[in-house]
């Protein structure tokens, strides 16, 4: 379906994670190992928050989105080389049916919030109208594209994302599952979602049938330094640096932990946590 | 806003009208004379019905749509040279705010129906949700883009376009104007619209404030032949051939009549008519 | 590298071969089995000659070329459904380094000639200038893109393609191999090439190291009818119909023969032949 | 033909010049006043050098180039808002015939050099081969597109641009004019060119017929402050800040001086100068 990467930590050039690793996100655009398809060639995007050291805060993120495959997108490469950021979301798309167009590329932005998704709402053509009606009328005009992913974002915003992200995502999950029930769609939701407000980052893993797409959370940097004293790069990143990815970027032993089913990773203020999605985990 | 052309008559290569005339539609993409802007560079499209002589009827139209300006769109030129059709709609877009993407390019297609529009629903962000809810739930999943134009098409389909096109368009007009009233938008609608089912062609001109965008209807070919016995091309086209355009394609004396305010042109079975939009003409 | 298909026979809708077969060319854009890569997502194109029954001959072919992956290219699908042709070339591209742009998509056209290629000139950056200088000065201005494939076409045109296609292609091969020798590139050429003038079709398979990319030639239709009396479609195609493909389109027993190393298939006047590339076969 | 802008001075967000001024470069993409065409909709690009304060020097510039019109290019807007640079080149293209593709968008980059052009080599199809042969063989493989503009860049590089930019550009001019003479093209060159190595900026204005496209150089900031004590923005920019543009960005009295025929502006080390192109000024 798609692959994505979210980063929070010491400011780095985006290319360090998007291009340089052995199994980088760009590599995954042609050679995904854990996705439904090996090819994720239906567009790409990156949203990044400015480095607070050199800008006024709290800043709106910038977003770059393109419809071509990531592997041949030269502007993405240019950007990734010169933009440094302490917090960014990157995405490569494999459409599940909706049009290949910029407004369907992730991440989606509303104010200083960014959202991206891997997965699908099954039976989306049948469920779409019901779900669109549940978007707050004041938010409705901001929906630009035609994907299930963007609609999920506006549903979550309508259900309180800005106040309590995990509770709003749980409400969004239940809302979609109730719509699925009304329309006779047995397992309507399949998702890994990353969302950020510029200081906090959440990464959710959930599916109705509890067989969710892969999601990995990087190990605490302090632990990794002990495991791998030989890896110099680990000395340069801040203690709280974390990466959440659809697929590990390489084979460094102990570097990646699977995010459990029906749970989410949370990164803020220099540390990371895992929590169950208690109200929907049933 | 946009410029368009609709043709019904003897099968001709699309290029005869899209490229060859002095002030062709492609010329209008950079040098429109009667539009709000001289430039219509936000995409282009053409939908055409097959020549019934060599196909089984009633056929679905084919649609070509591209996001670049018409003047540099090589595939359009190739197509226009080799495709012959007795009935086609062509459009060059000047966005009034919605994204430049293929799914926002005209003409829009549903089954064997084609629709294209020049103009705007004013206050569209405010009115959009109300109008979207009035689309028949069975049609709702087919809306692919984000334009007012496509939404008007699905509203018209929901309001009976397939049974009685002029009455359905009048209902659509009233529906949009009522939504405008509810939201305090004084003059919500500005439109010239072409719609066809493959055998009939309608071209509507209307705006709430009765100052609609330009629309011209070609003179009956028999009359033109008498006026211009020197124009050889007129001998080769069938009697009932008609062209409806946002702007005249050239300066041939007597060749073009303005479609009056709040009325529509109708072309079928080899003849053309003009009718008032009686129930909204007030 | 790339995959392609060339067809000569009874006029058919392009979609019959591009979309309908089990392992169609469009399927190969994501799931090539015999290519260097499974993904061929760097553009696509089709060039077709008009059906002589309804046009004046000898006609220029039309060409459609797009930079996105074939699997999501809606205009190609539209075209393929409505265009019927007795002779066409279709191509899906996997770039070997040159830019993803329309002018690098195949097939290339010069007058009524079409050319497409799978493979590469190895060491192309080093050899390019030498080879460009050997293009006839009168043809030089027509080179539009930056690929080795288009340059090969103009070399072949400069070396007599219009007079004797197989001999000109052999000269082109030797010219490239000589340039390779001068620059110390041991195995400079890897190619399967299709070329047509609108009535004849040639399909070449060659590589300096005699380990060429796959190429298949469809069996004579009369033979296939005897083998498969149960396949109704075979009764509808003319006797001389032939398809040349990078990979078989399906699993019909006996339907496909590999084109041997260093040889070419020739289709014209309703029959097909295989010939060695004698002067370079060494 | 095209319009461009070059900036050297205090680091600013690109959007300050590309989007904010009354007659900004983006405005010029639809409403150029002094160009051959009012529309410059055949692509856009910007190349910028990093702010040396936060990067290691001497840095390669980053380049963003897109084929759509600047007015609807959302990624350009995003970039322009978040990228700050002390030295950048921005361009909007109106093709004089060559393909609308990324590799034909300006600025062109070689190493840490950037180049952009407004104008044309007249008779380019006839002259192209001669000129291409004069590119140094070691530079030839770096030519990616098909424009006269990029070819001029590689000619200038071959003729010593890196050692003495003004002399190399004069040599390039003479080389093109000699090729024109050989081919019977009376006035082969029309150009305004900006070129930078990351610390110095040159802007040339020349045409064989001495009727060159418009080019303006901003007045010394100290002088402007005296003229306009009411303009607060002038207090914030460094003394040596200079802008060179195809058309003035606004109507501030005394802010713009025309660059004379057959001369060039030079900006470095915080001051600007104008010099004649002595050897070609005849």
TL;DR of this structure?
The structure is a homotetramer of 282-residue chains. Chain A has 282 residues and is α+β, with helices and mostly antiparallel strands. Chain A has helices at residues 15-18, 25-31, 74-82, 124-133, 148-158, 165-182, 221-227, 233-236, 278-281; strands spanning 2-13, 44-49, 62-66, 84-93, 108-110, 113-121, 189-196, 201-207, 216-218, 242-245, 256-258, 263-268, 271-276.
Overview of the molecule:
- The structure is a homotetramer of 282-residue chains.
- The first copy, chain A, has 282 residues and is an alpha+beta fold.
- Chain A has a single domain, classed as Glutamine Phosphoribosylpyrophosphate, subunit 1, domain 1.
- In chain A, 26% of the residues lie in helices and 29% in strands.
- The first copy, chain A, contains nine helices and 13 strands.
- The first copy, chain A, has a seven-stranded antiparallel β-sheet. In chain A, strands 5-6-7-8-12-13 form a six-stranded antiparallel β-sheet.
- In chain A, a hairpin with a 2-residue loop joins strand 12 and strand 13.
- The longest helix of chain A has 18 residues.
- The two termini of chain A are 26 Å apart.
- Chains A and B meet through helix 4 of A and helix 4 of B.
Number of strands of chain A: 13
Largest sheet of chain A: 7 strands, antiparallel
Q: Over all CA atoms, what is the radius of gyration of chain A?
A: 18 Å
Categorize the overall geometry of chain A.
Answer: globular
Beta-strand content estimate of chain A? 25-35%
Q: Biggest interface: chains and residue counts?
A: A-B, 17 and 18 residues
CATH superfamily of chain A: Aminohydrolase, N-terminal nucleophile (Ntn) domain
For this structure, the quaternary state is: homotetramer
Helical proportion of chain A? 25-40%
Count of DSSP H/I helices of chain A: 9
Ends apart, CA distance between termini of chain A = 26 Å
Mean pLDDT of chain A: 93
Order of H and E elements of chain A: EHHEEHEEEHHHEEEHHEEEEH
What low-confidence regions of chain A span 5 or more consecutive residues with pLDDT below 50? none
CATH architecture of chain A: 4-Layer Sandwich
